Amino acid sequence: MAIIETRRLTKTFGRIQAVRGIDLDIEKGEIFGLLGPNGAGKTTTIGMLCTIVRPTSGTALIDGHDVGREPGEVRRSVGIVFQDPTLDTVLTGRENLALHAMLYGVPSGLRRKRMDELLELVDLKDRADDITRTYSGGMRRRLELARGLLHRPAVLFLDEPTLGLDPQTRARTWEYIRRMARNEKTTVVLTTHYMEEAEQVCDRVGIIDHGRIIALDTPERLKQQLGGYMVVLRAKDPPLGTIRALPYVSEVKESDGTLEIAVKEAHLHLPDLLSKVPNVECVETRVPTLNDVFIKLTGRDIREQDPGEDLGGWVESVARYRQRGK
Amino acid sequence: MPDGRFGRELLGTYAVWWRELKVFQREKSRVVSSVASPLMWLFLFGGGVGSAISLGGGSYQSFIYPGVLVMAVLFSSVFFGLYIVWDRKLDVLKAVLVAPVSRVSIFFGKVLGGCTDVMIQAMLLSCFAALFPGVNLWMIPVALGILFITSIAMVSLGLAIGSMFESLEGFQVVSTFLVFPLFFLSGALYPVGDNLPGWLQVLVRLNPLTYSVDGVRGALLGLNSFPIIADIGAVALFGVLMILLGSWLFSRMK
C-alpha cells in the first residue's frame, strides 16, 4: 500500500484554483520530488498533506490516516521542514531538538538517544550545545532536518530545502537528505526549483503546473521521452521549420540565435542534422535534463520564474487555512 | 511518562513553558530592567512625593509599595503576552503550531512561562518590603498569591491582544491606551475612597486591577477599601475571563 494516497485532491482560494484534482501514490521509502514553477500549487499540495491547508475537496491519506478527519494522527506521522527557517535561535541545537521531542510526544527514555543519533547523522554533535543564532545557514538547515525526523515520522516533507543556500552547501544538504532517508527509512516528499539537483536525489518526480500533475515518473524515464541527447548549436538564420520536421527531432527551443534540439540517437543523426543547417557557428551535445523535460511539457523554462515570489507561500497558506477556522 | 491524549497535551504545555524558562535564563538583562523600573517608582518618585505628603497614617512610600508591585506585574505580564507578535514574525511559533498539540495547551504553556518570569520579579521586589515601615512581612505570601492570579490574567490579556496583531506597531497603542490607564486608574498611587471625583470613582471601580491593588495593600498594610476575599474573587473572575478570551483568540490566530 502506498504511504501517501491522494484522490482528486483540490484546493480553491475564492476563485483561484490552486490545486485541481491531484491523484498521487507515493510508495514507502521513496524520495519524491514535486517540481514546478511558482504558483503551480506545490506548497499548497504539501500544506494539505500535512494538515496546514484544508482541502476543498478530494481525499488524502497519509500512512492510512485521512488528513481531514484525523489531523492529529497525520501530524504525528509527518515531519515538516518549512521553506523559511523556523529554529528557535535563543535555544541551543540540542534544546531545539528537546523542545520538539516533547511537542511530538517522544517518550522521555528515548529522547536523549534519538537526539544523539540525529545530531551525529547531521554532523552537529560538536556544536549541539551552542546557541543556534551562531549557526551558519547550512547548519541551521541540517538541524531542521534532524528536528523533522526526531519522532520517526512516516513521511518527511521538505519545502524548498536548499533555497537560499550557496551551491556548495546545497550539494551537502542534498547529501544529508539522502543519507537521512536511507538511515531512517523515511519517505521524503520535497519541492524544489533546482531541477538538476532534483534529478540527482529523487527516485521519482511529479511535475506540477497550474495545479495539475502533468508528468510523473523517474527522472531517467522522463528524460528518455525527449530522446537521447540535446544538441545545442549556434547558427545565423537557422531553418527552424526544416529542423522541426526532421523525424529524429522531438523538440526545438530557440533563444537569441542558440538552438536547443532534442535528438534521438544523436551519434547517428548529428551529421545529417548539421547538413540541414547552413552557417553553423558552433555545436555541442549534452544529455537532457529535467529542465528540458519541463520546457517540452510547459513551453517555459522553470528558471525563468523568480524564486523569490514563492517565499510567502507557506505564510499565505497558513493564513488562508486559519481564516476558514479550524 | 504521561500516556494518552491528555498526557501528550500536558507534555506540550510543559515543553512551551520549559522553552520560556530557557529564554528567561538567557536574557538576564530583562530581569534587571524590569526590577529597576519599579524601584525607581518607589524611591525616586515615592521618595519625592513622600517628602511632601503622607497617607493612611504612614509614609507615602509604604502606601504605594503594594501599588508598585501590581504595576510591575501588570507591565511585565502584558508585554510578555504581546511578545508573541515578535515570535510569529521570526517564525519561531510556526514549527510549534504544526506539532500535534492543541493550541490551548500551547497557550497554557505560554501563560505559565510568563507567570514564572513575572513572579520571579515580584519575589525580587518583595525583598525590599522590610525597607517600608508598616508592611506586614508575614503577609507577603498572600500578596504574592494575589499577584500570581493578577499575572495569569494579564499574561492572558497580552496573549489575546498579541494574537490579533500582525505587527509590532500596535505596542505603543496598547501601552498608551490600555496599560497606562489600567495602572493610573488602579489606585496604585492614590487612595480610592470617597475623596475621588465621581467620574474617576466609576472608572477606578470598573478597573479589575483596582481589586488587585486593594487586596495586596490590604494584606501588607491593612488599608483595604473592600474585603480582601472580595478582592481576590474579583481578580480571579477577571483571570478566568481573560484565560477564556486569550485561549479562544490564540486558537483562531493565523
3D architecture notes:
The complex is a heterodimer of chains A (326) and B (254). Chain A has helices spanning 42-49, 71-77, 93-103, 108-121, 137-149, 167-184, 195-201, 219-224, 240-245, 266-276, 290-298, 313-324, and strands at residues 4-13, 16-26, 31-35, 57-62, 65-66, 78-81, 155-159, 187-192, 204-209, 212-217, 229-235, 249-255, 258-263, 280-286. Chain A is α/β, with parallel strands linked by helices and 326 residues long. Chain A has a six-stranded mixed beta sheet, with helices on both faces. Chain A has a four-stranded antiparallel beta sheet with strand order 2-1-4-5, covered by helices on one side. A four-stranded antiparallel beta sheet of chain A has the order 12-13-11-14. Chain A is elongated and about 75 Å long. Chain B has one domain. Chain B is 76% helix and 2% strand. Chain B is built from eleven helices and two strands; from the N terminus they run ααββααααααααα. Chain B has helices at 4-26, 28-50, 60-82, 84-89, 92-97, 103-126, 140-164, 170-184, 198-206, 208-221, 228-252; strands at 54-55, 58-59. In chain B, strands 1-2 form a two-stranded antiparallel sheet. In chain B, α6 (103-126) crosses α7 (140-164). The two termini of chain B are 32 Å apart. The A-B interface holds A 50-52, 72, 75-76, 80, 82, 84-91, 95, 99-100, 102-105, 107-109, 131, 147, 314, 318-319, 322-323, 325-326 and B 1, 7-8, 11-12, 14-16, 18-19, 22-23, 26-27, 90-92, 94-96, 98-101, 251-254.
Instruction: Give the fraction of residues assigned to helices of chain A.
Output: 25-40%
From the structure provided, what is the oligomeric state, counting identical versus distinct chains?
Answer: heterodimer
Largest interface (CB within 8 Å) is between:
A-B, 35 and 28 residues
Cα separation of the termini of chain B: 32 Å
| Poorly predicted parts of chain A | 305-326
Strand order in the sheet with the most strands of chain B? 1-2
Class per helix and strand makeup of chain B: mainly alpha
Strand content of chain B: under 5%
* Number of beta strands of chain A: 14
Poorly predicted runs of 5 or more residues of chain B: none
Rg from alpha-carbon coordinates of chain B: 19 Å
